[in-house]
Automatic annotation (TrEMBL):
Stated family: Belongs to the adenosylhomocysteinase family.
Catalytic activity of the protein: S-adenosyl-L-homocysteine + H2O = L-homocysteine + adenosine
Phylogenetic placement of the source organism: Bacteria, Bacillati, Actinomycetota, Actinomycetes, Streptosporangiales
Intracellular or extracellular location(s): Cytoplasm
This enzyme's EC code(s): 3.13.2.1
Organism: Nocardiopsis rhodophaea
Enzyme class, spelled out: hydrolase
Family annotation (PANTHER family): ADENOSYLHOMOCYSTEINASE (PTHR23420)
Cofactor: NAD(+)
Domain S-adenosyl-L-homocysteine hydrolase NAD binding, chain residue ranges per copy: 188-350
Protein residues bound to NAD(+): 154-156, 188, 217-222, 240, 275, 296-298, 344
Protein name (Swiss-Prot/TrEMBL): Adenosylhomocysteinase
SMART domains documented for this protein: AdoHcyase, AdoHcyase_NAD
Length: 420
C-alpha cells in the first residue's frame, strides 16, 4: 500500500511509535468510545482536515478517531520541541495520515509544513495557537476556499482569533474548544499543572520542597501549577496584572507580589500568561545565582530571550538536556529551560493521556458538529455546544465506574419555573 505524503525523520521508528500510541490509548477510555462510534457511523466521510497540533501519542489517538470516522487528515507540528519522531512515523506508516513534522525543525521549516498541509485544500482546520488560520489569512487565503470551519484548542489561539474577528479579518467559524469547562478544568488546570512540574524536574533534577517558585499568571494554567508546586512543598509566589485573579490567589493563601519584587527571591520562575515580555531585562538582572527560568505559556515570547542573551557574557548550551546556562558579568548563572518554549512539552511529554482524553473527545465530537452544521454557521469565534461537554464528562465518568444522581421530574420543574 502506498504511503501518504510525508516529511518525517525516520519511518523506521514506526513500530516504536505504535507502542507509544497504544500505551496512551489505555488511558483514553472516553476517546476510545468516540472512536468506536465514529467507525460505525462514519460521520466525516469525505471531509479533508488540516491540523496544526503537537505530534504526540495523545494527538495520534485523536487523529485515529477522526480517521475512523472517514476524515482525510494532513498534520503539521505546532511546536518543534514537542514532536515525537516515532509517533510521526507511526501516523504515516501505520495509520495512513499525512504528516509534515520533525523534532527540532527551524522556523522556516515550520512555516513550510503549515503551508504543505494547507495545500490539501482542507474543509476544516484543527489549530493550535491560531497558526494555520494566521498563515493562510496572511499568505495564502485561496487555500481556504473550501474551508467551512475549524477548532482552536489553546487560550492564546482563541485570543488571536477574537482579535482577528474584531478587525474583520476572520473569514471562518472557529470553535473555541479551549473554553469548555472540561478543557479548562482538566487540560489547563490539572494537565498544565502536572506536566509543567514534570518538565522542570526532568530538566533540572531539582528538589522543589523548601524552594521558592514564582508563578507568573493565575489563570487556569497558573492556578494548577501553583497547586502542584505547593503540593511538592514549595513556597509559591504569584504575580498577576488582573486584580480579581490576584485577589483569588491571596484568598487561596498564596503570596502575591509584583514581578519586580518576586524575581529576586525566586528559585524557579515560570511564566503562564499567554502574553509577551513577562520576564524582562530588569527582572533577569535581579535573579539570584542558579535561578531557573521556564515558560508554560503558548509561545516563546514570555521570557525576553534577547535581553537574556544581551546580559550574558557566556552561554553554556545543554548543561543538562533542555537546560541552557547563561552566565552574567558578575558570575551569576541563570538556567533557561526548553529554549523558553513550552517546558512541559520541550522537557517532558506534555499532559498525561488521561487529561487529553477529555480535551480530545470534546474536539472530536465538535468536529462532527461542525461538519453537520456547516451550512448554518457564520464567521466568528463560537462556543462548543454545552451538550458535547456534558456528554464527554458522562463518558469519562462511565469509564471510571462513577455514578451520579439525576434530577427528578419535580426538581426539573422547580429549576425551570418562577413559581415557588
Amino acid at each position: 500500500m502506498a504511503l501518504p505524503e510525508h516529511d518525517v525523520a525516520d519511518l523506521g521508528l514506526a513500530q516504536a511509535g505504535v507502542r507509544r500510541v497504544e500505551w496512551a490509548a489505555r488511558a483514553m477510555p472516553a476517546l476510545r468510545q468516540v472512536h468506536d462510534r465514529f467507525a460505525a457511523e462514519r460521520p466525516l466521510d469525505g471531509v479533508r482536515i488540516a491540523a496544526c497540533m503537537h505530534v504526540t501519542a495523545e494527538t495520534a489517538n485523536l487523529l485515529r478517531a477522526l480517521r475512523a470516522g472517514g476524515a482525510e487528515i494532513a498534520l503539521a507540528a505546532s511546536n518543534p520541541l514537542s514532536t515525537q519522531d516515532d509517533t510521526a512515523a507511526a501516523l504515516v506508516a501505520e495509520y495512513g495520515i499525512t504528516v509534515h513534522a520533525r523534532a527540532g525543525m527551524d522556523a522556516e521549516s515550520y512555516d513550510r509544513n503549515l503551508l504543505a498541509v494547507l495545500q490539501h485544500r482542507p474543509h476544516m482546520l484543527l489549530d493550535d495557537g491560531c497558526d494555520l488560520v494566521n498563515i493562510a489569512s496572511l499568505e495564502r487565503p485561496e487555500l481556504l476556499a473550501e474551508t467551512f470551519g475549524g477548532c482552536e484548542q489553546t487560550t492564546t489561539g482563541v485570543i488571536r482569533l477574537r482579535q482577528m474577528r474584531a478587525e474583520g479579518v476572520l473569514t471562518l467559524p472557529m470553535v473555541a474548544v479551549n473554553d469548555t469547562a472540561t478543557k479548562r478544568m482538566f487540560d489547563n488546570r490539572y494537565g498544565t499543572g502536572q506536566s509543567t512540574i514534570d518538565g522542570i524536574m526532568r530538566a533540572t533534577n531539582a528538589m522543589l520542597a523548601g524552594r521558592t517558585v514564582v508563578v507568573a499568571g493565575f489563570g487556569y494554567c497558573g492556578r494548577g501549577l501553583a497547586e502542584r508546586a505547593r503540593g511538592m512543598g514549595a513556597r509559591v509566589i504569584v504575580t498577576e496584572v488582573d486584580p480579581v485573579k490576584a485577589l483569588d490567589a491571596v484568598m487561596q493563601g498564596y503570596t502575591v507580589l509584583p514581578m519586580d519584587e518576586a524575581a529576586p527571591i525566586g528559585d524557579v520562575v515560570v511564566t503562564v500568561t499567554g502574553n509577551r515580555d513577562v520576564i524582562r531585562a530588569e527582572h533577569i538582572a535581579s535573579l539570584k545565582d542558579g535561578a531557573v527560568l521556564a515558560n508554560s505559556g503558548h509561545f516563546d515570547v514570555e521570557i525576553d530571550l534577547h535581553a537574556l542573551e544581551a546580559l550574558a557574557v557566556e552561554v553554556r548550551h545543554e548543561v543538562r538536556p533542555q537546560a541552557d546556562e547563561y552566565v552574567l558579568a558578575d558570575g551569576r548563572r541563570i538556567v533557561l529551560l526548553a529554549e523558553g518554549r513550552l517546558v512541559n512539552l520541550g522537557a517532558a511529554e506534555g499532559h498525561p493521556a488521561a487529561v487529553m482524553d477529555l480535551s480530545f473527545s470534546v474536539q472530536a465530537l465538535t468536529t462532527v458538529w461542525l461538519a453537520r452544521h456547516r451550512d448554518t454557521l457564520t464567521p466568528g469565534v463560537l462556543e462548543v455546544p454545552a451538550d458535547i461537554d456534558t456528554e464527554v464528562a458522562r463518558l469519562e465518568l462511565a469509564a471510571l465506574g462513577v455514578g451520579i444522581d439525576h434530577l427528578t421530574p419535580d426538581q426539573e420543574e422547580y429549576l425551570h419555573s418562577w413559581h415557588v
